[in-house]
Amino acid sequence: MEKHPADLYKDHVRPFLRSKLEEFKILGYDDVELESLWSYLTDKKWKKKTELHIYELTSDILSVKIGEFMNYATVESFKTSNWLGSEEGQEALEELLR
User: Fold this and answer.
1) pLDDT for 35-52, tens place per residue?
2) For 77, phi and psi rounded to 5 degrees?
3) What are phi and psi of 34, to 5 degrees?
């Protein structure tokens, strides 16, 4: 896995990541992990950025909306899931096509 330029600052912005995770918990999303939030930020928010400043990273972290993150997490879970290849997935697909 290729390192993202923001990885250099991860330890510096960790308190802001934790703050955002606490906000998500208050909203009822207890299962969001720091690494998945970081992946969202590096894959989506900072995908094309090559030069980053800590104030930009901090602002981006604090401005993450739960809906944006959950959309990303849902798409990623579909990408990594092989549910349709499973027996349960095949049965559900056959049921839909009847």
Assistant:
1) 999 999 999 999 888 888
2) -70, -35
3) -60, -40
The answer to whether residues 84 and 40 touch, using CB atoms and an 8 Å cutoff, is no
Domain residue spans in the chain?
A: 5-97
pTM equals 0.78
Q: Residues 56-88: pLDDT tens digits?
A: 999 999 999 999 999 999 888 877 766 667 777
> Tokens representing 50?
């090559």
For the chain, give the secondary structure using H, E and C. Answer: CCCCHHHHHHHHHHHHHHHHHHHHHHCCCCCCCHHHHHHHHHHHHCCCCCCCCHHHHHHHHHCCCHHHHHHHHHHHHHHHCCHHHCHHHHHHHHHHHC
